[in-house]
Design goal:
53% of the residues lie in helices and 9% in strands. It is of the alpha/beta class. α2 crosses α5 (83-96) and α5 (83-96) packs antiparallel against α6. The protein is elongated and about 85 Å long.
Length: 260
């Protein structure tokens, strides 16, 4: 149980970073609790957040859902907190609470006070976060399709080949991109995190287990097999009627004419 609590804590820190947005969110909830007593619709944000917190930070819920999520992405549960709605609502509400005075001379002052408060809140929100458009998350696209270049080369290679029906077995590193280029290419297994862990062909490709792959190929009519270049094959693919269709820097594509 202690380990689960620590995992939830680590994911909380991973999601909220320095916690500045959560502080703004909590301040907004306190404002709603005090100022919006008569507004039942708005108080739903408060009640909903309490219920979500009880669920998300519950070790029993984590124990049930984490295996389903797979890959340590339980932190996405924090997406359900209505931060992006609550904080702006309270900010606008706070600004508009300043009433225009009857004296014409001071009306301009109130306007500039509101403008200053609005700008200050925006600056606080901006400085509290971190720009996600950086080299850690994005890279310059090498092609118009915005796909990994080698995945595009392999998809193009298979697409332009003469086989009418194209069934391909590719490593998990590029399986997510092939059909984005050409949906006519049928993949031996789908892009699914759970599939990677349980799909025997993923392991067979990694081990270069040719006999296992050939047995599966006969069963499913797989006529394109893609290996990583550094993979040591247990047998020659040519002995099973396959020939090299092409290569990239990382991958080698084999084709079996008999299954075309």
């Amino acid at each position: 149980m202690k380990e689960i609590i620590m995992n939830i804590k680590d994911m909380y820190i991973q999601y909220f970073g320095n916690g500045a947005y959560m502080i703004l969110f909590l301040i907004s909830l306190i404002y709603i609790l005090i100022k919006e007593k008569q507004n039942k619709t708005i108080r739903i944000f408060l009640y909903g957040t309490i219920i979500l917190a009880v669920i998300i930070f519950n070790p029993l819920v984590y124990k049930i859902l984490e295996p389903i999520f797979s890959g340590g992405v339980y932190w996405r549960m924090f997406w359900m907190f209505p931060i992006a709605i609550t904080v702006p609502y309270v900010a606008v509400k706070w600004i508009t609470e300043k009433k225009e005075p009857e004296e014409v001379k001071t009306k301009g002052k109130i306007f500039w006070q509101k403008a200053f408060i609005g700008v200050a809140i925006c600056v606080i929100i901006i400085l509290s976060g971190k720009v996600v458009f950086n080299t850690d998350n994005f890279e310059v696209a090498t092609n118009w399709y915005k796909l990994p270049q080698e995945a595009l080369e392999i998809a193009t290679m298979i697409s332009e080949d003469s086989c009418e029906k194209k069934v391909a077995l590719v490593p998990e590193t590029i399986v997510a991109y092939i059909r984005q280029y050409n949906s006519d290419i049928i993949l031996r297994y789908a892009r699914n995190p759970h599939t990677y862990a349980n799909e025997p062909m993923v392991s067979a490709l990694q081990r270069g287990a040719v006999a296992e792959i050939m047995e599966d190929s006969e069963k499913h009519g797989t006529n394109y097999i893609v290996f990583r270049n550094e993979t040591s094959l247990t047998e020659n693919m040519e002995d099973y009627g396959f020939e090299i269709l092409g290569k990239t820097n990382t991958y080698t594509v084999y084709k079996r004419k008999e299954l075309c």
